[in-house]
Amino acid sequence: MTFSNEVESFIKDYVKKLHEGTASVFAGAGLSIPAGFVNWPDLLRDIAHELGLDIDIETDLVSIAQYHVNENGTRDRLSQKIVDEFVEDTEETENHRILARLPITSIWTTNYDSIIEDTFIKEGKVPDINHSAKQFLTSRTKRDLVLYKMHGDALHSSDAILTKEQYEKYHQTHEPFINALTGELTTRTFLFLGFSFTDPNLDYVLSRLNIRFSEDKKQHYCITKKPTLGDKANPDQATLDYNLRKQALIINDLKRYGIKTLLISDFSEITDILGEVEKRFKKRTVFISGSAEVYSPYERQEAINFIHQLSKQLVESDLRVVNGFGWGVGSSVINGALEAIYSKPMKYSESQLVLRPFPQFQTGDKELKQLWEDYRQKMISLCGISIFIFGNKKQNDEIVEANGVIREFEISHELGNICIPIAATESAAKSIYERIMPQLDEYYPKPELAKKYLNILADEKINLLDKVSKLIEFINKLSK
Q: Are 440 and 455 in contact (CB under 8 A)?
């Protein structure tokens, strides 16, 4: 898919921030509505009707909630509506699933529902949830992300921020949220999704950041849909022209806070953009698949040195290496990556080496074969590129092709990974090469480019170590 220059620039910057560990998300109601949750007008529709007000005309919805409390002397019905509307078993959207697969360690939201944390848990990640000021005093061990629910949680609806009075006192009652968000807005890059920028709490933080840091603001991004003639909010040309003008003013005003707006024509484009972010991030993560009982047609030391240098230079190219510790291959992958990391610990990180040794014994109800299949699926899903080397094993005193490496190739292709066999290493790697070559357009977005490099990697006349630089060159061209 072709993106505008502004969206393309965002994707490159945000992928870079993901690799650096400084990317965050701020999720508004627009992220949850497609999953089946209500927006604020629908949440307060019955409340407004009882007050004799038309929710489709009113814009100050916080005041409507306050009017209800003023008239009834209690917020019991408001609390119950939050439970009724936001505590339900719903299916997450593809946008939620993509975010959960990305290495995002900090998410902020004004939503009451639990769909964000539920999706991350499904992805096998541990969320540390803060929905009250007291929770800042403790933190969950082994957490993968911190989720800040700055307006509360549906399961604790009586404490949820909803009325005008609560918004007015927020800086006193929820000061830890204000301080934490202020800090993250100055150190991390945020992507605002499903947000209208009419929330008084966010406005409070942004306005003070603008005063404090003036010209030295962090760059943030938001994705916003352009008004379209004929939709619910734009029934005629005059209304459309008015809303386009208002949107342009809001976009320009957001620049004061360092927030750049990316305009889209349809909400489905958000999924396309997030999908491209995930795709490009994964292209900087390489899975090395291989096993070797023998290293034919090479001498053992030559082959081991090749694997060592391959892993080392992948790390030195700012790539992340994932390996399942294959027989005869895993140790060299580890040694090569660690040599790069420890030689320049200020430049390279241990996070660039991800090891997933296969379980050797059955656990629970799953057969070992099924455990290995699940393990392969999970491990390969972390990556965007799969490299295949050697791929043989001993079976009944004979050297045979490693079916596990072939299966890892099949999974890689199913998951959309770019598969790169180094056919000169023979065995499974050569079989994969012979399977790919007749149908290159099925495996590569640039078949001619792939043909050139795959043939270089298959040529036994080219020194094995010389293939490493060519492989890195190929990967870099694929990542552009």
A: no
CA distance 47 to 55: 9
C-alpha dihedral, 464 to 467 to 471 to 473, nearest 10°: 160
Q: Rounded to an integer, what distance in angstroms lies between the CA atom of residue 14 and that of residue 474?
A: 23
Minimum mean pLDDT among 188-192, 204-208, 271-275: which range? 204-208
- φ, ψ at 379 (rounded to 5°): -65, -45
Domain locations in the chain as residue ranges: 5-280, 283-478
Q: How many CB atoms lie within 10 A of CB 84?
A: 13
- ∠ CA 449-410-336, rounded to 5°: 70
Class at the top of the CATH hierarchy for domain 283-478:
alpha beta
Give, in degrees to the nearest 5, the angle at Cα 210 between 209 and 212: 60
Q: What would the pLDDT profile of 330-388 be if each residue is shown by its tens digit?
A: 899 999 999 999 999 988 888 888 877 766 666 667 777 778 788 889 889 989 999 99
DSSP notation for 48-116:
HHHTT--TTT---HHHHHHHHHHHHS--HHHHHHHHHHHSS--PPPHHHHHHHHS---EEEE---SSHH
- Token pair 């993106």 is found at 3
- DSSP H or E stretch at residue 400: strand 398-401
Helix (H) or strand (E) holding 303: helix 300-316
Higher pLDDT, 167 or 306: 306
Q: In 3-state terms, what secondary structure has residue 149?
A: strand
Tokens at residue 446, please? 């640039």
Tell me the CA distances in angstroms from 377 to 46, 264, 361, 404, one per residue in order: 48, 34, 18, 12
Name, in order, each residue with C-beta under 8 angstroms of 130's C-beta and a sequence gap of 6 or more.
136, 146, 147, 148, 149, 177
Indicate which residues carry an active-site annotation: 151
Q: Is 260 helix (H, G, I), strand (E, B) or coil?
A: strand
3-class SS shares of the chain: helix, strand, coil, % to 5: 55, 15, 30
286: tokens are: 């390489």
Q: How far is CA 221 from CA 13, 50, 225, 247, 274, in A?
A: 10, 39, 13, 15, 13
For the stretch 439-471, pLDDT in tens is 999 999 889 999 999 999 999 999 999 999 999
Q: How far is CA 294 from CA 321, 398, 424, 434, 452, in A?
A: 23, 11, 14, 21, 28
**pLDDT tens-digit readout, 99-151:** 999 999 999 998 999 999 999 999 989 999 999 999 998 988 889 999 999 99
Closest to 424 in 3D by CA, of 476, 394, 466: 466
CA–centroid distance for 193 within its chain: 13
The residues, ordered by sequence, that sit 6+ positions from 105 with a Cβ below 8 Å of its Cβ are 21, 24, 144, 145, 146
